[in-house]
Specification:
The complex is a heterodimer of chains A (442) and B (332). By secondary structure, chain A is mainly α. Chain A has 2 domains: 348 residues, ABC transporter involved in vitamin B12 uptake, BtuC, CATH 1.10.3470; 73 residues. The radius of gyration of chain A is 24 Å and the shape is globular. By secondary structure, chain B is an all-alpha fold. Chain B is 66% helix and 2% strand. Chain B has 11 helices and 2 strands; from the N terminus they run ααααββααααααα. Classes of the chains: A mainly alpha (442), B mainly alpha (332). Chains A and B meet through helix 8, helix 15 and helix 17 of A and helix 3, helix 4, helix 9 and helix 11 of B.
Chain lengths: 442, 332
């Protein structure tokens, strides 16, 4: 298995060299940075799905939260906002939300002081309604006032890497909430519920212009390492400056990826990892052995989401622009799933490899299909037919098809992935156990 | 009275229309879930595909010189339904049947259906680009207006012809489906398989036949819903991908595997969406003199830009409070 992994990784770097040779060094440097960030996100999903069998289809929302965290931390402080009465209005809305939350929690505890179930339900619903109306009465004027005067509240002016950490923390916090609510659901319901929650997060980030600037986009997000412009100021040529700056960024991302990979791998090989796999493979038996199944699953969900959030933060600060309308379910949820399935769910090196390989395929299928279409079009013309119109925009759509094909083929012919999970380490000489399916908690 | 008509035009009619679409989609999803036990994510793209099949046929008919006073899409709908049903069968044969034969978990089929989603989307965008298409290039969309003969009423009740057709077709389909499931041999077989597949098989029910009929019905309904939606708004490649989640919400709210539940869920979600973004302050306008000043001018329950989240919120609440749905569908 180790030899197979090494060969595959070597093949991947061979591919990268070919790409570097055809597309140039700056492009390859960008590709590698994004590849490493996606590999970190895939590692996060592998913790949730590979270790725990949890169906997180809400990756999009977590990645967006990571990106928002960077803008909130790293963008310059808006003195206009802090000088206006905006902070006081927002503070009042937060107080209203807090009182509402207390009401809801209080209504949920009414049975302890002798109210019947029916009354408790009634008061719970009433508490939700009162809390919602109370919050709306405070937040609506605040939003109107901020959006009409200072547009948005700005950032905190902290370094970019603080934003990365905050991205992980924010995603983990939201994942804790999501997990608390949904982890009791059966697998396919969990998938649909998490997709729905991701859509809610997207709608919120897109429309809360006072907080996120919404579709007006935030840029330029600062880098934690010197920008190409800094190198150019030192008299280095434009092409080289991009390579140097992106290489600096790459070192940082790869350092985070390697650290995460090593830590996760150590945890996986230890008693904690064995417990997680026991819960995944048979949660009833694990529960009977005294493991707190729900709490452990929540732990995995939060941990994986933190990595996804950090990955999302890295992507946003790298592209320097935060555009909520640039996030699509296909690019940010399904793509990650393909990475983990193709790479090998349950194997960290497999997930990271899948992340790198699939991102390469995803990016390169556009120029490759453009090249193919141009050839095809020329051939059509030579046959006397009309050329293919709008080749550029059509080629872009090909990668969606390619990705779909990859999923279906992988499920059919390599359901355990390219670098599968190692099961039954004591019997390495025998054929792998007849486990054909990725496990499922239900 | 004008306010009531405004309410009718801007909340009831849209709710009824989008509810019909959701209901038609959710019936397909719930049937597939009942028979094959997996959440068919590619259903939305089956709908889009149906819309595009209808569009191609309509263009083809117009190309050979057929001209009608009504949108030509109504004429070719049966053919388009047949083509989409065959496509659904082919998709099952190529992508789901091999996985089923290996006895995979339902969730693997869900992931496979995501792959199918992306393939259909990629192909549609490859051939049609990302632009929008309109069925009403040759014939204009007919708008019906009913003026009430009451003093002081200035607004007419208005709706378009496709909307009427859509609601009528949905009602007809629901009745037909009811008789099919309760009276016909195949319908009874489908219900038996949905209740207990093993027991149905030992009683001599041909499981492969039931699966085929399920795909034919689901594909046909998807084409119908997709075409109807395209007639109501416009046809675009991400037409149904955007409504697949509300449709899932409808199926789950109604109780997965329950056909009547799916219909009820579809209308519930449709009305919930249109009523929650409706500005209720309009209804209070006749009493505006008695109302206090602090009342805001916009009393919509959620701002319009969050319309899409309504379905998800209902979905999440249903999953938490009553996971079997209204009609006690497949339990957790």
């Amino acid at each position: 298995m180790i030899r197979r992994a090494l060969i595959l990784y070597a093949l991947f770097f061979g591919l990268v060299l070919i790409v570097g040779w055809t597309m140039g060094a700056p492009f390859t440097a960008r590709l590698l940075v994004e590849t490493a960030a996606y590999a970190l996100i895939a590692l996060g999903l592998n913790i949730q799905w590979g270790y725990g069998g949890l169906f997180n289809f809400g990756i999009l929302g977590l990645v967006m939260l990571g990106g928002f965290a960077v803008t909130a931390m790293a963008m310059p402080v808006s003195t206009a906002f802090w000088g206006s009465d905006g902070p006081w209005l927002i503070g009042r809305a937060i107080i209203a939300a807090g009182i509402g939350a207390l009401l809801i929690i209080g209504a949920g505890r009414l049975d302890r002081i002798g109210f019947s179930r029916g009354w408790k339900r009634t008061f719970q619903v009433l508490a939700w309604i009162v809390a919602y109306i109370g919050f709306r009465t405070q937040i609506d004027p605040a939003v109107e006032s901020i959006e009409s005067s200072v547009r948005w509240i700005g950032g905190l002016g902290l370094p970019s890497w603080v934003g990365w950490i905050f991205g992980g923390v924010l995603a983990a916090g939201v994942a804790w909430l999501i997990g608390k609510v949904t982890l009791g659901l059966r697998s396919d319901y969990l998938a649909i519920a998490t997709i729905g929650i991701a859509e809610i997060i997207r709608a919120l980030i897109k429309n809360m212009e006072w907080l996120t600037r919404g579709t007006l986009t935030v840029s330029p997000v600062p880098w934690p390492v010197p920008l190409p412009q800094a190198y150019q100021a030192d008299g280095i040529s434009v092409t080289d400056s991009f390579v140097y700056a992106r290489a600096g960024y790459l070192i940082l991302v790869v350092a985070v990826l390697v650290a995460a990979l090593l830590l996760v791998q150590r945890a996986y090989a230890g008693p904690w990892g064995r417990m997680m796999r026991a819960i995944r493979d048979n949660y009833i038996a694990a529960g009977a052995m005294g493991k707190d199944v729900r709490a452990r699953q929540l732990q995995l969900f939060v941990l994986g989401s933190a990595l996804i959030g950090i990955g999302g933060a890295m992507l946003t600060s790298f592209t320097q622009i935060y555009d909520p309308s640039g996030y699509q379910t296909i690019d940010h949820t399904f793509l990650i799933w393909v990475m983990v399935i193709v790479g090998g769910a349950g194997n960290n090196f497999g997930a990271v490899f899948g992340g790198m390989l699939i991102y390469l395929v995803w990016v390169m299928s556009e120029p490759v299909s453009q090249w193919l279409f141009t050839r095809l079009s020329d051939w059509f013309v030579s046959l006397g037919w009309a050329p293919i119109p709008e080749i550029a925009s059509r080629a872009l759509q090909m990668r969606v098809f390619v990705l779909g094909l990859v999923i279906v083929l992988a499920l059919r012919y390599a359901p355990r992935g390219l670098i599968p999970e190692v099961t039954g380490r004591t019997r390495l000489d025998e054929k792998p156990t007849t486990k054909t399916e990725s496990p499922d908690p239900a | 009275m004008n306010e009531a008509i405004f309410f009718l035009n801007n909340a009831v009619v849209p709710g009824l229309v989008i509810g019909s679409i959701y209901a038609l989609g959710a019936v397909g999803i719930t049937l597939i879930y009942g028979i094959l036990r997996f959440a068919h994510f590619a259903h939305g793209d089956l709908m889009t595909m149906g819309g595009f099949v209808s569009y191609l046929l309509a263009i083809g008919l117009a190309g050979i010189g057929v001209s009608t006073t009504f949108p030509v899409a109504y004429l070719i709908l049966p053919v388009a339904i047949a083509i989409t049903a065959v496509a659904a069968l082919a998709i099952d044969r190529m992508f789901y049947a091999p996985l089923r034969a290996r006895g995979v978990k339902p969730v693997t089929l869900l992931v496979a259906s995501i792959g199918v989603t992306m393939m259909i989307q990629g192909l549609i965008r490859l051939f049609f680009g990302t632009g929008t298409y309109n069925f009403f290039e040759a014939t204009p969309k007919v708008i019906h207006q009913i003026r009430l003969p009451i003093e002081g009423v200035t607004r007419p009740i208005s709706f378009t012809q496709p909307q009427v057709v859509m609601v009528l077709v949905t009602v007809a389909v629901v009745i037909a489906l009811h008789f099919f499931l309760t009276r016909s041999r195949f319908g009874k077989a489908m219900r038996a398989v949905s209740d207990n597949a093993d027991l149905a098989q030992v009683s001599g029910i041909n499981l492969r036949m039931v699966v085929r009929i399920t795909w034919i019905i689901a594909g046909g309904l998807a084409c119908l819903a997709g075409t109807m939606l395209a007639l109501d708004v416009t046809l675009k490649p991400d037409l149904a991908f955007n409504i697949i989640l509300p449709i899932f919400a409808a199926a789950i709210v109604g109780g997965v595997g329950q056909v009547y539940g799916a219909i009820a869920g579809g209308y519930l979600i449709g009305f919930a969406e249109s009523l929650s973004v409706f500005n209720w302050a309009v209804l209070l306008r006749p009493f505006r003199d008695q109302l206090p000043d602090w009342l805001p001018t916009n009393l919509a329950i959620v701002p319009t830009e969050y319309k899409l989240t309504v379905a998800f919120v209902i979905l999440v609440i249903t999953l938490l409070v009553r996971p079997t749905g209204i009609f006690r569908g497949a339990s957790l």
